Amino acid sequence: MKSESKLEQILTKGEFAVTSECGPPRGADAEVIRKKGELLKGFVDGVNVTDNQTSVVRMSSISSCVILKGLGLNPIMQMVTRDRNRIAIQSDILGAAALGINNILCLTGDHQKFGDHASAKNVFDMDSIQLVQTVKLMRDEGKFLGGEELKGSPKMFIGAAENPFADPFEIRVPRLAKKVAAGVDFIQTQCIYNLPKFEKWMKLVRDRGLHERVHILGGVTPFKSVGMANYMKKSVPGMDVPDELIERMKAAPKEKKAEEGINICIETIQRLREIEGIHGVHVMAIEWEEMVSEIVKRAGLFPRPHIEG
Amino acid sequence: MIVAERKPLEQISSMIESNNKILIVGCGECVTVCSAGRKKEVEILASALNMVRSKEGKPVEIRQETLERQCDGEYLEQLRGFIGEYEVVISMACGAGVQFMAEKYKNSLVLPALNTKFIGVTEEQGVWSERCHACGDCKLHLTGGVCPIARCSKSLLNGPCGGSANGKCEISPDLVCGWQLIIERLSDLGQLEKYEEIIPINNWSTNRDGGPRKVVREDLRL
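Predict the joint structure of the above. Result:
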């Protein structure tokens, strides 16, 4: 094993993994994280903890990870390169590892323009691919970027995100290849709604043998309402929502919209399980964590495999 | 060229509200090309300030000058004979010109009339856009002649990020994704395989992160 991560053990055993997501609160109340954690406990193999997502200030990912770890969950610390330079990034990786966090998701991060501090200075000392390289260097070679040796390597399972639907499409697989070459262990994809396009991307991934070098977890997000489906289609950059799904949400009776959203999500998971090279699913139920257990159960992914330690 | 834009009149006017003898100095280089600080803009600013002050009943005496450039001591010397007669000097040069004038004339208060924006090009008449961050270590040979540091909103060396949609940057539908441009160029040049080479983590010490920079050419020194 490269890391001390339960997620790595599950994926290495060939089990179909389930991860989910937990957004830290906009305040210092640890109870918010605990409540979300309790809803997910036992139903997922790892929980992404976002790092000031959409550039809105929240409780830090590291501290939220530690709170979840205390509940017995397996946190995946998201780290964006927007807010820290290489000195702070390496320092936080060491600190997180010392606190028992053994998964990291390497991201560039949304531009600060989206958030509540649009006049902030951004950092971007490195990009997500270089962050993957940095964690790998620290873990496997026991070195800092500056070349000096470190004592006590951070045994982290290294993840990254990939959006098969972003533009330009022709470099989406080469981009994954770059992340694989950088040393990424697992990939969580952007929310998948356009399955034919996703399958086309996966075929190109398989043609290059990349599915054998990295664990790919397909991302899903259930629609809560027609409004949300429309918002995802029109307002979220790089999101591909086919019209037929919007129509399905519209056609559902008023009191059954949310249920239809869950149905679509479960059908997507079933389709994803059939695709060669998909090793798991990443369920992003945005501020709807209470639905994750139902999705996992109805998708036939419960109980989760038991891993010691 | 260095592209600049004049500050709002109210701001300039408030800087000089207690002064009565003012020298406005234009610059004949970059800010002339981008129409921010040439002779004509000096005239416009002088007449606008005159109007503001006349309205307030506090008329002001303004002298106008435009130098070849303000980033060269030789031209700044041309002010030596009379600069001391003015309470303040408003420089219509870029930030470098303003500072160099202040360095040369230690007893003069030199104020900026422009906001210095970027190193860029004239895209079309009246439109300028950024091309270079002066990072000190040009990478254009790696990226099809399109700069990832200046043209990507996040200065990503291995882009694009997931926010690129329809060729546009996530921060604005009016902004072309820099990495889209790089990929198109590499593709046109038959060099798309270059995209898969990971550009290593950058050495920013050649950028301003290394502190204020200096170029010394021993072969040219006197």
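The CA atoms of residues 164 and 172 of chain A lie 6 Å apart.
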